[in-house]
Amino acid sequence: MIPDVSDPRWKRVLTSDSDLSAASLATRILISRMRREVAEAPGALAAKVGELRDFVTKNPFAVADVSKF
Questions:
Q1: Which domain holds residue 30?
Q2: How far apart are the first and last CA of the chain?
Q3: Which pTM value belongs to this model?
Q4: Which superkingdom does the taxonomy of this entry point to (predicted)?
Q5: Span 23-38, pLDDT tens digits
Q6: Does 26 fall in a domain?
Q7: Is residue 3 part of a domain?
Q8: Hey, CA dihedral for 7, 63, 69, 1, is it positive or negative?
Q9: pLDDT tens digits for 7-62?
Q10: Is residue 2 assigned to a domain?
Q11: Is residue 44 part of a domain?
């Protein structure tokens, strides 16, 4: 199951420097880019959470990655 955008795990993964080595390469690349973008513009956090959730929704392999966050 994919968490709702209000789930704090989305914000936590984008604002922390937690290890992503267990996630797929595509997910790691996306989250790394989003972390940089959020660090540069903290006001973009809500939009990035939505973007990350959309990515997970469209890519079944990423659902397993989310369970590791």
A1: 8-66
A2: 13
A3: 0.91
A4: Bacteria
A5: 999 999 999 999 999 9
A6: yes
A7: no
A8: positive
A9: 999 999 999 999 999 999 999 999 999 999 999 999 999 999 999 999 999 999 99
A10: no
A11: yes
